[in-house]
């Protein structure tokens, strides 16, 4: 009799769990109060629920319900159309239970990622920190900070929540991200959402899907040679799996990237790695969003050419569609790998976005970028893109130019601005064939355009390092 009663009790429990509703619908952390959704877009909202549970999702901007139900993996997703910037609105998800997300704004959403210079906050120390902190009252700017974590496999959720920009929240947020977002907000007059997913010291490999690295022999070999360190992961995909994958497919306006210092020991590999990362993210999001990045600042790395060669790899990445590069060697610090001037870095990234993404063509977004050269006797004439307003020097004479003949031995050269070109020569090189500009770890050259933006370092040759004497 006892066994019969036990069996009946189990059957009753099974009946209840099978046929009665359960409060099952849930959302990932990226959907929380104070969030920003991309305006004028088709945004994806997703989560989990009981298989077969009827679910409806609606935004108060139009109150149009979109219905779905989870499959056998308890996952669901819907797409909502958003109008132009505005708010606050509510986002409502109804299943057996109801979730209402309050204070939702529609605006521009940007992902900020990289290593320590992107992660760097006002609390860590920036120029004029107290002034910037006190002024950081922007109710229409919102922050989401992704906690550090790692995994061997892609995760579905992460820890974090959206917060309103205040002096208290700005203090611990990415300073570069904040200054970027502030300029966007002030110029576009729309809400801005910033997602900071960065980790100091990380090489770029950890931010790429590990399967992509494994499929590329060059990238896989380079990654395998990395030694473990105490302060961050170094293995491919470790941060991607936990700090990027759970954000997909949250709709973005674009991505910002400030990283490269930890890859300076292998710049030739980075020339493949950064475009691979960009393509990987765009493929995963199924969105060719703009990707704007910082060309790292000069620093005493220990060798002689780590910085210019890594900067060259970043320069070459401009060949990837919808990319832009902020040059910052004039606001760096050759003795500190963490320059404290984050204001100009954020503003230069914002200028790129305002010009290239938002169509404000009157905003200069790039310093001079080398285009081509022409040998003229014992001189070489250099041509540039982005000579906005003409070329100029900050100082009496141009610095950091070198020329070489066929012997591949570079010597210091004199430079002269002629219109939108620069003519260089060295008295000991009668038949010059190549030019280098800013080609040393601590170079802080002084060629600018009249918009005040610095020229990127470059070289006109492709000679291996070991050939130079």
Please name the fourth-level CATH homologous superfamily of the largest domain.
SGNH hydrolase
Mean pLDDT: 95
Low-confidence stretches: 9-20
Number of strands: 23
CATH topology of the largest domain: Rossmann fold
Radius of gyration: 26 Å
Strand content: 25-35%
**Which percent range fits the helix content?**
10-25%
SS summary, helix count: 11
How many structural domains does the protein architecture include? Answer: 3
CATH class annotation of the largest domain = Alpha Beta
List the helices and strands and how they pair.
Elements: H1 2-19, E1 36-38, E2 42-48, E3 55-59, E4 66-68, E5 75-81, E6 86-94, E7 98-114, H2 116-119, H3 129-134, E8 138-145, E9 162-165, H4 167-170, H5 175-188, E10 192-198, H6 210-214, H7 217-224, H8 240-244, E11 254-258, H9 267-285, E12 291-295, H10 306-316, E13 323-327, H11 343-357, E14 369-376, E15 379-385, E16 391-393, E17 401-404, E18 411-412, E19 414-418, E20 421-425, E21 434-437, E22 447-449, E23 458-459
Parallel strand pairs: 1-7, 7-10, 7-11, 8-10, 11-12, 12-13
Antiparallel strand pairs: 2-5, 3-4, 3-6, 6-7, 8-9, 14-15, 15-20, 16-22, 17-18, 17-21, 19-20, 21-23
Helix pairs in contact: 5-11, 9-10
């Amino acid at each position: 009799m006892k066994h019969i009663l036990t069996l009946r009790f189990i059957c009753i429990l099974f009946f209840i769990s099978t046929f009665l509703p359960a409060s099952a619908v849930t959302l990932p952390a990226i959907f929380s109060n104070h969030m920003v959704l991309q305006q004028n877009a088709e945004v994806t909202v997703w989560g989990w629920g009981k298989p077969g549970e009827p679910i409806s999702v609606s935004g108060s901007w139009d109150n149009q319900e979109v219905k779905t139900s989870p499959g056998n993996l308890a996952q669901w997703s819907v797409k909502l159309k958003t109008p132009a910037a505005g708010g606050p609105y509510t986002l409502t998800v109804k299943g057996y239970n109801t979730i209402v997300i309050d204070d939702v704004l529609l605006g521009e959403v940007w992902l900020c990622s990289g290593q320590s210079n992107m992660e760097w906050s006002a609390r860590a120390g920036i120029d004029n920190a107290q002034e910037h902190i006190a002024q950081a009252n922007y109710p229409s700017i919102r922050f989401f900070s992704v906690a550090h974590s790692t995994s061997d496999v892609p995760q579905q959720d992460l820890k974090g929540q959206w917060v309103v920009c205040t002096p208290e929240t700005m203090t611990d947020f990415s300073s570069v991200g904040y200054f970027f977002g502030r300029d966007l907000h002030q110029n576009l007059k729309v809400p801005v959402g910033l997602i900071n997913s960065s980790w100091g010291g990380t090489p770029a490999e950890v931010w790429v899907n590990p399967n992509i690295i494994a499929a590329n022999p060059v990238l896989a070999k380079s990654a395998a040679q990395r030694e473990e360190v105490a302060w961050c992961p170094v293995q491919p995909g470790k941060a991607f799996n936990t700090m990027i994958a759970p954000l997909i497919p949250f709709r973005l306006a674009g991505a910002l990237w400030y990283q490269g210092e930890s890859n300076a020991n292998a710049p030739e590999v980075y020339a493949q790695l950064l475009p691979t990362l960009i393509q990987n993210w765009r493929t995963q999001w199924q969105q060719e969003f703009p990707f704007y990045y910082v060309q790292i600042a000069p620093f005493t790395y220990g060798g002689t050419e780590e910085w210019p060669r890594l900067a060259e790899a970043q320069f070459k990445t401009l060949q990837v569609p919808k990319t832009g590069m902020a040059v910052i060697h004039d606001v760096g610090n050759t003795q500190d790998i963490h320059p404290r001037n984050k204001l100009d870095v954020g503003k230069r990234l914002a200028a790129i976005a305002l010009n290239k993404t938002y169509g404000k063509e009157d905003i200069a977004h790039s310093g001079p970028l080398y285009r081509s050269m022409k040998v003229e006797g014992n001189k070489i004439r250099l041509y540039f893109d982005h000579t906005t307003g003409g070329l100029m020097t900050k100082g009496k004479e141009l610095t950091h130019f070198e020329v070489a003949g066929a012997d591949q031995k570079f010597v210091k050269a004199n430079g002269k601005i002629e219109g939108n070109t620069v003519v260089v020569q060295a008295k000991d090189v009668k038949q010059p064939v190549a030019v280098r500009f800013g080609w040393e770890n601590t170079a802080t050259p002084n060629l600018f355009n009249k918009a005040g933006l610095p020229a990127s370092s470059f070289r006109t040759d492709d000679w291996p390092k070991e050939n130079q004497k």
